[in-house]
Design a protein that fits this description.
Blueprint lengths: L6 E5 L4 H12 L4 E6 L2 H8 L5 E4 L5 H15 L2 E6 L19 H28 L3 E6 L12 H21 L4 E6 L7 H5 L13 H14 L3 E2 L4 H11 L1 H20 L1
Parallel strand pairs: 1-2, 1-4, 2-3, 4-5, 5-6, 6-7
The structure holds nicotinamide-adenine-dinucleotide.
The site of nicotinamide-adenine-dinucleotide has 30 residues, from helix 1 and helix 6.
Amino acid sequence: MQVTGKVVVVTGGGNGIGKALCEVFHGAGAARVIVADLDVHSARDVAGPINGAAFKCDVAQEKNVLHVIDETERQFGPIALFCSNAGIGGGFDPMSVNAGGTSDEPFARSWAIHVMAHVYAARHLIPRYKARGGGYFLNTISAAGLLSQVGSPAYSATKHAAVGFAENLAISHRADGIKVSILCPQGVDTNMLRSIPKGPQSGDGDLSPEQVARDALAGIEQETFLILPHPQVLGYMRKKTENYDRWIGGMAKIQAKMREEFGK
Ligand SMILES: NC(=O)c1ccc[n+]([C@@H]2O[C@H](COP(=O)([O-])OP(=O)(O)OC[C@H]3O[C@@H](n4cnc5c(N)ncnc54)[C@H](O)[C@@H]3O)[C@@H](O)[C@H]2O)c1
């Protein structure tokens, strides 16, 4: 799909990858870019220079997601591309002695933002997309959804669930002309990455959000399901499926090394 002339929504568009996506879509000639973020000040700062529109939105709240969809379509016309990009880096603890030992809170919050937000967007857009013969979802997930996130069971589990939902969305609605892409980078130089302990996510080098957004645009133009800004991830996925046990062993070594470094 070409974004030229289209109405596009980006959640978590106030910072990092979302901000870069907004700017890249504007540069590619989108008719209007809607910046939806919990932090409305950042959303306004991003929307201003690109003649976009800003909405305050907590994607964990279904009514907030619906409000963004309704208001965008009322003010600017049909949404062609909805990017569920908002995410949080909760529940990171490389020194944890129990993967199930944290409180429920990081799991619940990550589930709401990384999974249910994607479900809400689909729930309210699919009937509209179907009625007009198609539409596009871009879901920012992570290489952690395909591999794992050493140091965060909550991030790993919810990003895997997000991949599972996106696959099902693409399968269920292919015949409706609805397209889905998942954006799965490793480390990207944003506030989120700076807020979590340094780890293997940066092993192949951190990319700039602008580079990741350009890769996302190219993937949408080619209508590719899996967008991998770090091409190395495909090799890691192959290793995982070739020999799951060996892959777990390798990841456990990375985990042990990380604990050792944090313990110093
Ligand atoms: N930075 C990385 O290394 C990296 C790697 C892989 C995937 N990701 C994913 O990319 C996405 C964007 O992350 P980023 O690195 O740009 O983070 P960021 O912290 O720079 O930006 C995230 C934005 O989302 C907003 N946000 C947070 N919770 C929200 C909510 N409930 N509702 C609406 N907005 C909310 C924040 O206010 C912020 O503006 C996330 O889904 C993240 O998991 C990031």
